[in-house]
UniProtKB/TrEMBL annotation, chain A:
<feature type="transmembrane region" description="Helical">
    <location>
        <begin position="150"/>
        <end position="170"/>
    </location>
</feature>
<keyword id="KW-1133">Transmembrane helix</keyword>
<feature type="transmembrane region" description="Helical">
    <location>
        <begin position="20"/>
        <end position="41"/>
    </location>
</feature>
<keyword id="KW-0472">Membrane</keyword>
<feature type="transmembrane region" description="Helical">
    <location>
        <begin position="252"/>
        <end position="270"/>
    </location>
</feature>
<dbReference type="Pfam" id="PF00528">
    <property type="entry name" value="BPD_transp_1"/>
</dbReference>
<feature type="transmembrane region" description="Helical">
    <location>
        <begin position="116"/>
        <end position="138"/>
    </location>
</feature>
<comment type="similarity">
    <text>Belongs to the binding-protein-dependent transport system permease family.</text>
</comment>
<dbReference type="GO" id="GO:0055085">
    <property type="term" value="P:transmembrane transport"/>
</dbReference>
<dbReference type="InterPro" id="IPR000515">
    <property type="entry name" value="MetI-like"/>
</dbReference>
<feature type="transmembrane region" description="Helical">
    <location>
        <begin position="191"/>
        <end position="213"/>
    </location>
</feature>
<dbReference type="InterPro" id="IPR035906">
    <property type="entry name" value="MetI-like_sf"/>
</dbReference>
<keyword id="KW-0812">Transmembrane</keyword>
<keyword id="KW-1003">Cell membrane</keyword>
<protein>
    <submittedName>
        <fullName>Carbohydrate ABC transporter membrane protein 2 (CUT1 family)</fullName>
    </submittedName>
</protein>
<feature type="domain" description="ABC transmembrane type-1">
    <location>
        <begin position="79"/>
        <end position="270"/>
    </location>
</feature>
<keyword id="KW-0813">Transport</keyword>
Amino acid sequence: MARRTSARRRPRRNGWGNPIVYLAALLLVGLMLGPVIYIILGGFRTNSQITVDPAGLPHPWEFGNYADVLTSDTFWRQVTNSTIAALATTIGVVVLGVMASYVLARYKFRGRGAMYALFAAGLMFPITVAITPLYILVKNLGLVDTLPGVILPQIAFGLPTTIIILVPFLQAIPKEIEEAAAIDRCSRLGFFWRMALPLSVPGLITTGILAFIGSWNSYLLPLFILNNQDTFTLPLGVQSFASQYSVDTAKVLAFTSLSMIPALVFFSLFQRRIVGGLTGAVKG
Amino acid sequence: MQAPPPSRARRRGIGWAQRLEIAALSGPAILVFLSFVIFPVLMAAYYGFYRWKGFGVPTNFVGLDNYKTILQDSAFLAALWHNGLIVVLSLVIQGPIAIGLALLLNQRVRGQSIIRVLIFVPFVIAEVIAGTGWSLMLQANGAVNGILRSIGLGGLAEDWLANPKLALWSLMAILTWKYIGFAVILFLAGMQNIPEELSEAAAVDGASYWQTQRRITLPLLAPTIRIWAFLSIIGALQLFDLVYIIWGQYVASTAGTSTMATYMVTEGRNAGNYGYGNAVAVVLFVISLIIALLYQRFVLRRDTDGALTGGR
């Protein structure tokens, strides 16, 4: 996995290359970003502008839609709920994941293979299949309409990917380091804390980001678990806002663009990790 | 060197201390995983044998009746057909386009990293946001038709979402937009792992650009393509969010975009037939599992060493 960054191809000469490539790239980027730009600009228009000319630019620019959303309690409550759910999911996935991965990577015991297979098999279990029983389970635990009711299943469903990514990191630590640490009277747990954790930080970051974005965007699970508007996360909020204000397209667009910003900021901060994590995870 | 080396016994067998560590470290993950993944999946299989409205303990055991109903239910079969189409079309549409784009971007391009970030944006945006935006753009009086009219192609304007002849193609367009960035990034990463010496050697031997791509890049990219195809197939089989968000209002089944997962949710949660909905979930799971295992067995064998089925 470490190879992929170092193997990045560098142009040897400083030329600009083929202009057709730039044209095609520009077109591609335009197609990809077009809808996003439409959503953002749409929020700066009025409904009559949208009705009269659905594809036009804002004229004049209307800031009221964004101002309304930014001053609404609903929006900020949903931002808070999404943030709490995503952070708790991330912490849970990473902490539980790295502990289990450490055991899988560095302990020899009977049932180790079975344990790895169990988690790996989890990759094949989509949350869709389990959603009704999950809802019932969460209901029996009294967690419906609470964020922990969303967080716990998200942690559980995030574990397989996390473990698959982290086990190789922990296995890659040479046995000699562990033996040297043992000679220096460092217990296995001490080794975990002082050596294994710091050495697997890149893996922890990747899995953490995947968990965070997955949680931030997740829809099906919150749809089942959260029925009370007060506990809505942003995806549910966007949808309910869109159906509630279905005639007020401009405001829906403003709400939608604002709810997209955190994920985009987060993504652009960590894009290298995300892309690397995805490609690395897939290649094993 | 004042400390003695660890005793032999401790190294060989598993001491109590070590067992305790194993339990303490992996226990929480196993507990959460068993409770919230394995147990619900098993319960789905169990509920699938009952006619059950979702209240209390299911008592009306109907054996395989739900499954018989599913296989005769034209709405389910339509959903299954849509899933099949989406699987095939995703591979056929996204694969070649993504490979082409990756080849294009794999050349000398200034600002390649920025381009990569930008084409990845749709993949990172939440399904809800993509769905809301696209449904506004594609509706009869939306932006897509607006653009068509403003460039004098008003005759092509359509109700892209509600017209059953077009809805599935609109869905494919949205899916391509949403997921092609992922494929391109994956393929680019694959290409950039191919040692440059190979293309250089080919160039020395007088191979043209296309010969090099066809004989060297594409064959060496094959493992990446196979993994992408696997992820794409599984994703297409389990497609839910986008369809449910966009077509929930039009009822996906009449628009011709229903999938097994949306069918499951409309039957199970919205219509209250929880037993039946769970049976649908089991069918969805079994189909995905069979396809995944066959794919692993016959296509991925060379690539993964069974990473997904728990090897190593």
